[in-house]
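Students often ask why we bother predicting the structure of a whole assembly rather than each chain alone. The short answer is interfaces. A chain on its own may look different once its partners are present, and contacts between molecules only exist in the joint model. In this exercise we take two input lines together and write out one structure for the complete complex. Read the inputs first and try to guess which parts will touch.
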Amino acid sequence: MSAIASPSDQPLGGGRNAAAQDGQPASAPMPQGRRRTELLMLAFVVGVVMLAYANVGLGLNGKVPAGMFAYGLSFAALVGAAHVAVRWLAPWADPLLLPLAALLNGLGIVMIYRLQLAGRGGNPGVQISTMSSNTTAFQVAYSAAGIAAFVAVLALVRQPRTLQRYTYTLGAIGLVLLALPALLPNSISEVPGTTAKIQISLGGFTVQPEEFAKLALAVFFAGYLVAKRDVLALAGRRVLGIDLPRARDLGPVLIAWGASLVVLIFESDIGTSALFFGLFVVMMYIATQRSSWLIIGFLLFVFGSVVTAELFQHVRDRFIVWLDPFKYVHTVVPSSFQLVQGLYGLGFGGVLGRGLGQGAPYNTPLVQSDFIITAFGEELGLTGVMALLIIYGLIVQRGLRAAIAVRDPFSKLLAGGLAFVVALQVFVIVGGVTRLIPLTGITTPFLSQGGSSLISSWMGIALLMRISDTARRPAPQPIQDEGMTQVVRAG
Amino acid sequence: MNHALRRVSLICLVLFVLLLVNVNYVQGFEASSLANEPGNGRTFTSTLQFQRGSIITADQKTVAYSKMNKTFGEYQRHYPFGKMYAPITGYDTLFSQTGIEQTENKELSGSDPALAVHNLIDLITGKQKKGATVELTINSVAQQAAYNALKTQGKQAGVVALNPQTGAVLATASYPSFDPNQLATLNGTKLIANDKQLLKDPNQPLLNRALNATFPPGSSFKVVTSSTAMTDKGINPNTQVFAPTQLKLPGAPQPLVNFDGEACGNGSGRVPLITAFTLSCNTAFGNLGLHLSAAQLQRQANLFGFNNPNLTIPLPVTPSNFPLYPDPAQRAGAAIGQESDTVTPLQEAMVAAAIANQGTLMKPYMVDKVTAPDLTALSTTQPTVLSHPVTPAVATNVTNMMIQVTQSPQGTAHVSAGTQATGGIVIAAKTGTAQNGINNSGLDDAVFTCFAPASNPKIAVGVVVKGGGQGADAAAPIAVKIITAYLAAVGN
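Now the answer. The structure tokens for the assembled complex follow.
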């Protein structure tokens, strides 16, 4: 770990010194890679996930699942590969992010496996019509793809600042991805059984472009705001103790607001629109430090919600159902059936849960996607849900910590935005299914069934780890111990 | 930017705290109200996944049990005696419960805190959770005699038999009844159809006429009036009382008359109280009503159990009514069981039981004990005193008068409940024939309250037959059948 001990192991390129870290005592108060901590926690994660997997089999039919060994090996191999890649590509990265993400991903696969078995193969419950007998296999494949994307991002983005070069390219890509489903015919872009137009479905293969648009737009916002932050922060008048921006500087925020309304109206996707707008406003705030943006953003959001609720029945229905869910259980429009079944599941689980495989989460429609947290609540109880929320909270905290530690403003903004969007997404979906706020369907990061969300979540973790790697990497030591050479730290 | 980032961390913290507080609320506090939300299939389905406890009689006859239905993969409730025990067991369906199934649900379903340790041991040892067994005080011989007797006479009726010394309910039958097996079906569509049919039935088979239907008591209330007069006026069975053929009532256009307008006794206008009681003279007891105060009569009625809306045995009991009658004419009518007086068959049995138990009324109860699946007793009901309506001396005097009702050749129940009808058992009783409808145009309700054997009471019975005519004709034979069957079973 000590960079002083052997000058040839200077962490200049990041990759070269990875092997040299092990076995060396931490003698100096230098930043540490802590890769062994990460490995230890990954072993713990594999253990927890394997126990959960065995628990599902025992809960459902009293037998340990047949494929447990092969499954455990493949999961261990996946997280092991991610760990080796981190040792090689980002040795100084935060050691917690990978195990936290891996634990969520592993538990998500276990829950999808449990839901897939309901009512199938002599197991108790009702078969979930929206799941096939190979849904879990697909989810494992998506996880592999997610970890591959994770490694690819770490390999391609060696310095977070390189992304800044592609600010407008990524901005354009993000907007196109966001708008694409709205422009495509319903047969391709509509999620079956809903009015949401959020996917591209071709030849049995479905992609939700918004999941990737989220990352691209976060990069775009960071690049744009770094360039404009001075004028956004300094120009303007002060009214009632609030620094108001100039009218022309409001342009970008209004465009972002308009875009989120377009998503809401043409794609019926309230959750995603709230997510994008929230992301933008918070990044504006981080860039300018002016709380007026938070206030303006919040007011615009409230105004937009009220107006769309007035204009569009399907938006208004969300509010109606939220206020009095038990009244609309058996009505067709609006219907609270899914929400109420989710609540019944949470209540049925109580404090300690029914145990994996022993609840009835199959009663909740589409429980494997938006409502997966209610399945955890039912079978692992309040205890399990709180543990999951704390895991998310830790991911957000590690992301924000990287943002504070890193020096480069672009990286700061990007990490801050990426960390916040995880918090906001968890708040919108978990708050929605637990009736804290009106329900809007978005995926639960790492847990929900589906490839796009999983892959983009892994890419987001890769970006956060890249930024934390940059932040925690020790400054290069002078090659000659003369104290004369001034070293300019990069990144 | 670090300042803003720290603020954003705070915002994120607030978001997560809100989520954590909310899931605590939903899963911790709201869980039970969500479970009780009608239409929550999870709650009911989970109760079908394990064996609900059985309900058995005091002599170990199983009257309700659960058995695995292979087709549905769930436990189904069975009621082997069908209609006979329906007013007691009630039913346990997808949507609702009644009777013992409802009041003892926690024990039967195993969710009672007393069963927590058993459940934990079962969980650890991998044994299936099972509900507790509820043992009733019901005697199957008395119950069978009661239901069959009601069924034979065929009119709407209710009957209760009590053990006077303990208050244990020996039999509770109601007619017409329903078959709870119809509602125990696991087929939801069939259940709804059966339920609709029962609710539509004009004979109201779901109504428990033993506990939840009230009728005018008629002359059977004279037991209460006699008790009041003996307690408050110090008279005894031999006291000569005023008993005219017609009793003029203050402020009323019509005088009070006896049954069919007959004279009371020898027509002299004065008879001993015991004679008036044996012949059931309305004028004598109406006159007692005039001389007793409204408060005195109501106090005595309350001690016998009237006007008590909180009585549960543990099935809820509809209160029997005896309001305050400040108007003397109305009070005279009330003293012979007319006006606004109402009783349940249980109330009739309670009056007889109090007299039989030397003036002490025991609280009626139906659940003797609850046994865990491993046969350890979880709870056993101890008999408790409800009240002391009369002194032992008054009780003995009233008993002597009630014996004359069946034993004296002039007694109103001499033919139907005398020793030749009972095979030698001496029953102490009072009949009632309650007038009904506008201007008494309806069919009379037949009422009978009694206990036996008179010298060593083991059973007290209250019967009401709606539209049965004279109490001695319609109601007394039912009580006789129950008493003879029960005493033959337990030995007298």
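Check your guess against this: The two ends of chain A are 20 Å apart (CA to CA).
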